[in-house]
Structures are given as C-alpha cells and as structure tokens.
Design a protein that fits this description.
heterodimer, A: Gyrase A, domain 2, Alpha-Beta Plaits, Elongation Factor Tu (Ef-tu), domain 3, six-stranded mixed β-sheet, 11 helices, 21% helix, B: alpha+beta, OB fold (Dihydrolipoamide Acetyltransferase, E2P), six-stranded antiparallel β-sheet, three-stranded antiparallel β-sheet, 9 strands, globular
C-alpha cells in the first residue's frame, strides 16, 4: 500500500532512531525491524524476560453513535452486544461476499465505548468495508481514528513476556492499581494511571501521572499486555519499561514469536481468497451467530464452517529456516518409480529461536494436485492422500524452493505452547 | 590484499594460490541475525560469479557468490554451531570458505573494490 506522504511515523519514531533501531517501510510506516541486540535476542527476551513493541502503526478506531454495535455486528464475527465492559475479543472483518478483509481485536473499554484495532497493512480496505457497510444499511455511526494515522492522539505499546506483568504493575504508585494489573486475565481490559518519569530525582514535577488503557492481549503467545497511552507520553512510557528491564523488540521478532505461537498473519494465513474454515478460524463465529446468520457473508461462510482447517505445522530437519511460499510435496515410493505429489505450500516460513530450526505453517491444496487415476495403484499411497486430507502429524514431506530441497515433518500447531494468564 | 565485490563478498588473498572469502560487515548488518549458513563440499570447483553458499538470517536467505574462480580447500565449520559469528565477526572469524586458485591474484581481483571504494559505495548508517 502506498500513501502520498509515506512513510508515516509513529509517536515513537525518534525514540526508535535514538535506540539505533534498523527502520524499514512496513505498510507505509517507518518501523523498527530490529534493534542492535538483534531479533533473536529480542525474541528470547520475550520468552525469558520482557520485550516491548511499538504497535502504534496499527489502526485504532473508536465507534460511537446509535448504530455502532450494529455496524460491528454486521461487518465482523464479533457480536458487541455480548461484549461486557472491560473485555476484548478477537474476530474477523468480513465482506458482503464472505471474504476475510482483516482480523481485528474489538474492545468494549471499561467506560463502555467500542474500539477496534486492525492491521496497518489493511487500513484502506478496512475503512472501505466499514464505509460500504454503513452506507448499505444507513447506520448512524461516527468513526474516530485514535491511532495508526499520521496525527494520532494515541500510541500503542505491546509489553510481552514472562516479566511483563510485574514490570507493568510496578509503573503504578497505587498498590490497588498494581493489584488490578496482577489480576488481569487474558482478554480483560483495565484503565489505570501510571506514574512515569524520573522517580529517583525526588522532584515531584519530574514524575507525571499518565492514563493508560491496559489489555491483557498480545501477538506472541506469551503473557503480557497491549497498552494505549497518550501519544505524547509514549517515549517516557518506553523509557520506564526499558529501565525496568524490558528490551525493545522489532517487527522481525514479532513475526518469529507469532509464528512459534501459530498465530495467523493477514496476507499469509488470512487473505480474501482463503475461507474462514480453511484458515481454522471457524471458532470465531459463535453458535448464535451461526444460527442467526446476521452478518456480512453469513450465507457463504456458515455452510462451510464444518469443513476442517487446511493449515498444519511443519518442522524442518536441521537448522535451516523455512520461507514463505516454500512448496511442499509428498514422495510416494513404488517398486518402479518415485511419484512426487504436490501437497501445498507454506503461508508462513521462518526460524524458531526457541526450537533452533526452521518452522512453517503449511496450507494443503483444496483441489487434489494429481487426479486420483494418475496416482499409482500401490499400498504406498496413504489414506489421507487418497482423500485429499491434510497430512497427519508425523508425515514426512519435502520442502522445495527452486533447486533447494529439505525434509520436513508435519507437527502440531502451535509450535510453542501459549503462556497467557487465564486466571 | 583484501577486495570487495558489488554483491558484498570480501576476498582476502592469503598466498600466491589461496584466498579466504566471506561477506562484508555491511552485508551482515543488512541481513540481520544469521541463523544458518549453507556451505559447499570440499574440493568443489566454482567459476567466478558462481553461487557457492547461502547465508540465512531470520528475515531472508541470501545467495553468496564467488568473486574469482577456485576450488574449495576449507570451510568454516565453526559456523555450523555458531552461524551468528557472521554477525559478530563478518570479516574475521565469520569467514565462509577458503579456495585455491590459478593465475595472478592482482589481475583476478582487478575489477573488485578496495576497502575505501567499498565503504564509500555502502555507507554504514
């Protein structure tokens, strides 16, 4: 996506540059891909300590007006009526034709307001979807972009990892607020006030009370929070978090962490051409919504929801990384020949610092790559291949990329078990 | 004598018939954390410009080209366990291979850049 005034800069741009970050263009934003520690150290900090990510490029919108709930109910898998204050829910944004336009977190903040965070790379498509849905139904809704726009009033920082909870709690002077943070379970949202600035100077003016909205969420599979703060306070919040032991982490570590956690990324596991069920995300559509079919694309999506996910994990032999779009084939050995059967490709391929090797998320072709009658008539053809099913755990496949090949094995997702705090 | 290729390899002539090859410090900083290095078999012969290795970072796989023709006489086996040495010491301990070559070294590397020309062409931020 290109914009007339790209690249955009988040409220933390100068902070990243001062840390020596390597900045790259990501969806029209100048974002840190890594800092001088390197993305592997940043990744491991999340598992062993605490990593902080600037996610202010993501589109953060507030929805107000009489039909705010109706709009989100129509355009997403989430039913806002059933979302209590201080709760957040993951969902998909859907076109009238049933295509997945983006994935998003929809939040009812502790004050009752409705907000949504969606991907920077899909900002224009999300805005178009919402505008179309509003005009088609004549909804009365006001959208306010708080973050992920050039003149953002709000910054978003993800604080993730084993020590995230104690580091965030210790930003509060008030012991009752610290207790709120310690008790906050996955998908819960709290409004708090942090005391930021130089606490050691004994100068009360050096310390500043800053309102934060803290959600127990993340994109790493680890415990932690996503924090909204006033844009102008973002640098002192980052300073306070890093002083407490968090290390700044860039987009490269964010991607290796989400891949280990088996979390989908739009443009990879999610596209307008991959069905909700194929991506294994049928669970985002609850029972009531399935029976009421009261959302965009329901007549297309609901009848497909019983179809199994076509995604599966693969682990490469040795330490070589896998890459996006690597081809996966299954080799059938018969007494007379080796038959190479294309199975699918990797929607995401990468390297797991924790497992010290290549991992990837594969997608099985929907249509059989070889006609049934062209398969050799031999017991060497496994049942799953005859049925065009997803290869079961333990299946040995071969990765092909140009002239390179590598043995890979089908494994379960996620690669690393999640460690969010669920109470 | 050490020279640099436009494709970011360095070659150091170590004797009248041998040279050591690696990737530049600039190249490793562009690649990010190196997690895997795919090195050739000993005794493999390559022409100038042949792809002889791949250096893979978290972000991308990068093909590495041989600046002059030669035969592999050594590979840096330490990179198997510590591929990250390409980051920490790209132009020293993180070397990739050693080759033997035929011909006059000066002439073979004539078209390559010296350190000053290379760093002018690739300023490090």
């Amino acid at each position: 996506m290109t914009h007339p005034n790209t690249p955009f800069r988040t409220p933390l741009y100068a902070w990243h540059a001062a840390q020596g970050a390597k900045l790259v263009d990501f969806a029209g934003w100048d974002m840190p891909i890594s800092y001088p520690h390197g993305s592997v150290a940043e990744h491991m900090a999340c598992h062993e300590g605490c990593a902080v990510f600037d996610v202010s490029h993501m589109l953060l919108q507030r929805f107000s007006g009489a039909d705010a709930e109706k709009l989100l109910a129509m355009a997403s898998t989430v039913e806002p009526v059933s979302l209590a204050a201080g709760r957040a829910k993951y969902g998909l944004l859907l076109s009238e034709q049933g295509a997945v336009i983006d994935d998003a977190i929809i939040t009812r903040d502790p004050q009752g307001g409705l907000k949504m965070v969606s991907n920077a790379s899909r900002a224009s498509q999300v805005s178009a979807l919402l505008a179309e849905t509003i005009s088609r139904h004549g909804y009365a809704v006001q959208l306010t972009a708080l973050g992920g726009v050039p003149s953002a009033t709000t910054a978003m920082i993800a604080v993730q990892g084993k020590n995230a909870r104690s580091i965030v709690a210790n930003l509060m002077d008030d012991s009752a607020l610290r207790a709120v943070i310690h008790a906050l379970t996955f998908t819960r949202v709290a409004s708090v006030e942090a005391s930021l600035g130089d606490k050691e100077s004994n100068n009360s003016q050096a310390s500043k009370q800053v309102p934060l909205e803290v959600s127990c969420l993340g994109y790493t599979g680890c415990d932690g929070f996503e924090i909204e703060c006033p844009a102008e306070s973002a640098p002192i919040l980052m300073d306070a978090l890093c002083k407490a032991g968090a290390i700044p982490a860039g987009l490269a570590a964010r991607n290796t962490l989400r891949l280990e956690a088996g979390l989908p990324l739009y443009g990879h596991e999610l596209t307008e051409d991959i069905a909700v069920s194929t991506a294994g995300l049928g669970w985002t559509i609850g029972r009531a919504r399935r029976s009421n079919q009261d959302f965009n694309g329901a007549d297309t999506i609901v009848p497909q929801l019983d179809a199994p996910s076509r995604l599966f994990g693969v682990r490469a032999q040795g330490r070589a990384p896998l890459r996006d779009d690597d081809e996966l084939v299954f080799v059938v050995e018969t007494p007379s020949e080796s038959v190479v059967v294309p199975i699918g490709h990797l929607t995401s391929g990468g390297f797991s610092p924790l497992l010290d090797g290549g991992i990837g998320i594969g997608i099985a072709h929907t249509e059989p790559a070889l006609a049934q009658d062209s398969l050799p008539t031999t017991p060497a053809i496994p049942e799953w291949l005859r049925n065009n099913a997803v290869p079961p755990l333990g299946t040995q496949l071969t990765m092909r990329r140009g002239k390179r090949t590598l043995p890979v094995m089908v494994v379960g997702l996620p690669f690393v078990p999640p460690s969010q705090f669920r109470g | 004598m050490k020279r640099y290729a436009e494709s970011h390899e360095w070659i150091e002539i170590t004797s009248a018939t041998t040279a050591r090859i690696g990737i530049s410090d600039y190249a490793q900083s562009e690649l990010g954390d190196v997690v895997f290095v795919d090195l050739p078999e000993l005794d493999t012969q390559f022409d100038a410009g042949d792809e002889f290795a791949a250096v893979e970072s978290v972000k991308a796989a990068s093909e590495i080209y041989l600046p002059i023709a030669g035969t592999v006489i050594a590979v840096n086996e330490a990179l198997e366990d510590e591929p990250n040495m390409v980051n920490t010491s790209a132009e020293k301990d993180g070397w990739l291979i050693e080759i033997s070559f035929e011909g006059d070294a000066e002439q073979l590397v004539e078209a390559l850049m010296d350190e000053t020309a290379y760093s002018e062409a690739n300023p490090q931020s």
